[in-house]
Amino acid sequence: MSNKKVIAVLGATGAQGGGLVRAIMADKSGEFTARALTRDVNSDKAKALKNLGAEVVAYNVDDYESLKSAFQGAYGVFAVTFFWEHFSAEKEIEEAKMIAKAAKEANVKHVIWSTLEDTRKWIPLSDKRMPTLQTKYKVPHFDGKGEAEKYFTDQNLPITFLLTSGYWENMIYFGWGPTRDNDGKLKLNLPLGERKLPGIAVEDIGKSAYAIFKRGNEFIGKKIGIAGGHLTGKQMAESLSKALGEEVIYNAVPFDVYRSFDFPGADDVGNMFQFKHDFEEYYCGARDLKFSKSLNPELKSFDEWLKANASKIPIK
Ligand SMILES: NC(=O)c1ccc[n+]([C@@H]2O[C@H](COP(=O)([O-])OP(=O)(O)OC[C@H]3O[C@@H](n4cnc5c(N)ncnc54)[C@H](OP(=O)(O)O)[C@@H]3O)[C@@H](O)[C@H]2O)c1
What we know:
Elements: E1 5-9, H1 15-26, E2 32-38, H2 44-51, E3 55-58, H3 64-71, E4 76-79, H4 83-86, H5 89-105, E5 110-115, H6 140-154, E6 159-163, E7 166-167, H7 170-173, E8 179-180, E9 186-190, E10 196-200, H8 203-215, E11 223-225, E12 229-232, H9 233-244, E13 248-252, H10 255-259, H11 266-278, H12 280-285, H13 289-295, H14 302-309
Parallel strand pairs: 1-2, 1-4, 2-3, 4-5, 5-6, 6-11, 7-10, 9-13
Antiparallel strand pairs: 8-9, 10-12
Bound molecules: NADP nicotinamide-adenine-dinucleotide phosphate.
NADP nicotinamide-adenine-dinucleotide phosphate (NAP) binds next to helix 1, helix 4 and strand 7.
């Protein structure tokens, strides 16, 4: 029987949680081991985590009893919520509330909550620069997380709030990559104006979370932000041009145009880009690159990420 400290990882078969499980299990002599939480212990992704030596345990964030038993005996909890499964800020807040309650009942010693800002602190609902969505949010997939922070602090949990950045993997899986225009040229169509966008290789979120668990008390009660790079659209296009071996031209899409794009959540994502644009100084400042590198020395830059991933970006 191992006497390692158990970290229960929500969304373990997903991008953030998966990175953390891999980081923990790669450190064979480390003091921690991972309990990978999934709705389906028999999926290929769950089996791959089991093959790394992680304990794989079934739960569903909507089933409080399953959450509580999943946290039993754990030292730590890495919490993510699942906005893009349902697109509802209200539901995401409920998920976070249940996670906080279960973590308290299980008496865990360190919780990391992967969160984002409540943008309404910067852009009140009365601010007409962007539409209000879902009745009372500006950026629902940010605001719900930010609002839910209170459930962790109210419970007096030993908590670290981890402000993440947009994954560069969105270029592979979420349509953020360059597309071929009618003129035959590759265009990077993003609503960034001329401002900088913090981004990160998603595997580095897990590695950073692992570093936070290892440093323990130092980060309990703190809010910290991470990014692998702060890049303008033009800078990203230059890096993409080098990596793809073909010129990519940055095209600054207006926020309203982006909000009207035909994919689910385009209004939410359009508002998000506008928030990051309008509050660039705050937003980049909260995700300091030097700090991120000191926390996780393996942190990848955009160019390094492209070296391994440019060929996976689907060019349409
Ligand atoms: N995309 C970005 O750039 C970005 C940046 C910052 C933050 N985020 C936030 O990251 C969060 C998602 O994390 P991710 O990207 O790591 O997830 P992901 O890769 O999309 O994976 C989703 C995971 O959610 C699990 N899941 C879905 N519904 C569940 C439920 N009812 N109960 C338990 N597990 C459930 C699935 O696991 P099983 O099928 O194995 O159960 C799956 O592995 C979102 O809240 C998003 O807003 C995203």
